């Protein structure tokens, strides 16, 4: 992030720009956009630092409470038919904080885990814990068993606040949690589980008067505010540390992208994820806007909700936009008030389809990891890009794209042991320098995993960079494009295969609804062979010859999937990230997989059912792939 001095620098650059000849600007057509974006980012960063450097510091909670004082009757939260004003949410959170303090005996710095679906309770619980100076661990509602118990332990949480909707998940681990010394409570009127208390009666009976300031004494910019868990697409989730400073910075992303106090933002993303909680809801806290919260995303009801609630800003992530484009077309597709879409993971072909179908919505794509120390924003609207590596940004948030050996799963180093920068147009691993302005706080309770994300001796001996684990490309105009994740890219026939590129190509096939591409091990072969799990469009059938011809025309031979697996539903996380772990593990094993499997047969020029004879020939290395 950017230091206070960045503001002075930005102003100086702006004055200098006035002296730049018009011809020079023509040679750099994005100069002004770059400068304006950088100045906005610098100002936002300085503003956050100025707030948190005060005594006492002004946190996002304080910013929210300022909106309560200024506009108490302004709606903060719309949920189904319910409306909660800023003042009502403030009062609910005061009651909850007093009940938590008295009944749970919470103390400053004590971590409390919340296991709640998207509902208003989540909002006032977050604020209540913030008023007590207690970090909130945001558990994934889909976590079960070992993963749920691990998540609690990772954040050091000794208290679990849960919803009765998740009763089965709670009761599954309850004996183990009691053994671990974790106390469990339901945030409801009654408890469905013997021995677990329901806290809502105590909350409703508590005073709604503001809490004394001493509850938050000692809070600083570096205090832990929230723990957000990685999606868990591979292995057990890790608890990323979100400090008060980072919370404030991320909440300002909406403002940087044009979020205004009169906006109504539609959040269908889970609040246990940083996009929904920090950018969506946190963005409303920052600017004083209204958030429409939905329990779960529904493609069929999305635009009806936008019209019902007069939505002006929508959030997206992952494949959400593709789901919207895959719904049946309606005559009123363009009848809505949405002016802005904010999110990440939007592929170029879906971007174009979305705009063509739903109208000229301003799309602000960004790139960043929950635990990351910097990111990019596509402030020019360049289709397919995640941002720009402009000349100003790099001076204050240093980053590099370095050569990466996919097969060895490590950066390529020169004879000095240092990493090698890639050239424009080449794919490289994104690493971001760890500095005072761009700190990396890592993961709670796991120093080894934190250290694993730090790459040392990158440009000079002794330096340290955050390893994003993502492969990006910067073109000759300095636009940044996401290519793939390190674990997803695989090597075959001596070439690197980017799964996202293959997925984007296969998604154009008329009978494919969704696709997930990955690499599988084949006996006697180096690297991993391409395989695609696909879900067919309703009423469509798999056309092996058509797919063979299409992939032959659109993909290089090394990137063409040799195996296809037909599934009724593709496994995804709560934030629409595709899960590849189980698919890779099962490979093309006929003894394990019950789904229809197909093999690319070059003789028949078609994808044909994988039969036992062909499967045996592959295992015996008698069939050349």
Automatic annotation (TrEMBL):
Biological process (GO), any one: lipid transport
E.C. number(s) listed in UniProt: 6.2.1.3
PROSITE patterns, per the entry: AMP_BINDING
Record keywords: Cell membrane, Fatty acid metabolism, Ligase, Lipid metabolism, Lipid transport, Membrane, Nucleotide-binding, Transmembrane, Transmembrane helix, Transport
InterPro entries noted in UniProt: AMP-bd_C (IPR025110), AMP-bd_C_sf (IPR045851), AMP-binding_CS (IPR020845), AMP-dep_synth/lig_dom (IPR000873), ANL_N_sf (IPR042099)
Family: Belongs to the ATP-dependent AMP-binding enzyme family.
Keyword Chloroplast: no
Domain spans labelled AMP-binding enzyme C-terminal: 501-577
Tagged with keyword Transport: yes
Identification of the protein by name: long-chain-fatty-acid--CoA ligase
Annotated Gene Ontology cellular component terms: plasma membrane
Domain AMP-dependent synthetase/ligase: 64-388
Gene3D superfamilies per UniProt: 3.30.300.30, N-terminal domain of ligase-like
Broad enzyme group: ligase
Predominant place of localization: membrane
Signal peptide residue numbers: none
Subcellular location: Cell membrane
Source organism of this protein record: Grus japonensis
Entry membrane topology: Multi-pass membrane protein
Residue ranges of coiled coil: none
Catalytic function, reaction form: tetracosanoate + ATP + CoA = tetracosanoyl-CoA + AMP + diphosphate; a very long-chain fatty acid + ATP + CoA = a very long-chain fatty acyl-CoA + AMP + diphosphate; a long-chain fatty acid + ATP + CoA = a long-chain fatty acyl-CoA + AMP + diphosphate
SUPFAM superfamilies cross-referenced by the UniProt entry: Acetyl-CoA synthetase-like
GO MF, one example: long-chain fatty acid-CoA ligase activity
């Amino acid at each position: 992030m950017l230091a206070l001095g960045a503001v002075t620098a930005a102003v100086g650059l702006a004055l200098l720009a006035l002296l730049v000849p018009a011809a020079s600007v023509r040679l750099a057509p994005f100069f002004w956009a770059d400068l304006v974006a950088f100045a906005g980012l610098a100002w936002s960063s300085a503003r956050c630092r100025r707030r948190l450097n005060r005594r006492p510091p002004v946190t996002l909670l304080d910013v929210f409470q300022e909106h309560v004082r200024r506009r108490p009757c302004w709606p903060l939260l719309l949920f189904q038919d319910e409306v909660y004003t800023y003042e009502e949410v403030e009062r609910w959170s005061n009651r909850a904080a007093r009940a938590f303090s008295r009944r749970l005996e919470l103390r400053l710095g004590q971590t409390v885990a919340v296991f709640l679906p998207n509902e208003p309770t989540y909002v006032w619980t977050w604020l209540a814990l913030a008023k007590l100076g207690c970090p909130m661990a945001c558990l994934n509602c889909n976590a079960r068993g070992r993963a749920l118990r691990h998540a609690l332990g990772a954040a050091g949480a000794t208290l679990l606040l849960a919803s009765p909707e998740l009763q089965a998940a709670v009761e599954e681990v309850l004996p183990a949690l009691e053994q671990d010394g974790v106390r469990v409570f339901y945030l409801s009127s009654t408890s469905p589980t013997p021995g677990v208390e329901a806290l809502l009666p105590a909350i409703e009976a508590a005073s709604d008067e503001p809490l004394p300031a001493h509850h938050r004494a000692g809070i600083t910019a570096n205090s832990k505010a929230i723990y957000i868990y990685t999606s868990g697409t591979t292995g057990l989730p890790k608890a990323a540390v979100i400090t008060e400073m980072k919370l404030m910075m991320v909440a300002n992303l909406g403002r940087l992208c044009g979020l205004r106090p009169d906006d109504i933002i539609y959040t269908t993303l889970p609040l246990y994820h940083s996009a929904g909680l920090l950018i969506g809801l946190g963005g409303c806290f920052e600017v004083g806007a209204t958030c429409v919260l939905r329990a779960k995303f529904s493609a069929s009801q999305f635009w009806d909700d936008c019209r019902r609630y007069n939505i002006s800003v929508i959030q997206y992530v992952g494949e959400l936009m593709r789901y919207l484009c895959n719904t049946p077309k309606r005559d009123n597709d363009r009848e809505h008030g949405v002016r802005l879409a904010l999110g990440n993971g939007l592929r170029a072909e879906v971007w174009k389809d979305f705009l063509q179908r739903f109208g000229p919505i301003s799309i602000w794509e960004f790139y960043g990891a929950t635990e990351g120390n910097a990111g990019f924003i596509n402030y020019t609207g360049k289709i397919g890009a995640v941002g720009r590596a402009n000349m100003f940004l790099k001076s204050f948030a240093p980053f590099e794209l370095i050569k990466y050996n996919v097969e060895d799963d490590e950066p390529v180093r020169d004879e000095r042991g240092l990493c090698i920068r890639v050239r424009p147009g080449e794919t490289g691993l994104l690493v971001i320098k760890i500095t005072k302005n761009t700190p990396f706080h890592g993961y709670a309770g796991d120093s080894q995993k934190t250290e694993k994300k730090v790459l040392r001796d990158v440009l000079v001996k002794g330096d340290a960079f955050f390893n994003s684990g993502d492969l990006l490309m910067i073109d000759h105009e300095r636009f940044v494009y996401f290519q793939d994740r390190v674990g997803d890219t695989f090597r075959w026939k001596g070439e690197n295969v980017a799964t996202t590129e293959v997925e984007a190509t296969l998604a154009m096939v008329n009978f494919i609804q969704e696709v997930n591409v990955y690499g599988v091990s084949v006996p006697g072969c180096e690297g991993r062979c391409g395989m695609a799990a696909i879900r067919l469009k309703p009423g469509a059938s798999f056309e092996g010859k058509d797919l063979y011809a299409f992939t032959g025309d659109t993909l290089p031979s090394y990137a063409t999937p040799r195996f296809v697996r037909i599934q009724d539903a593709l496994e995804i996380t709560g934030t629409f990230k595709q899960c590849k772990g189980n698919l890779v593990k099962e490979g093309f094993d006929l003894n394990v997989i019950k789904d229809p499997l197909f093999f690319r047969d070059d003789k028949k020029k078609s994808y044909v059912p994988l039969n036992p004879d062909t499967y045996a020939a592959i295992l015996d290395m008698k069939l050349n792939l």
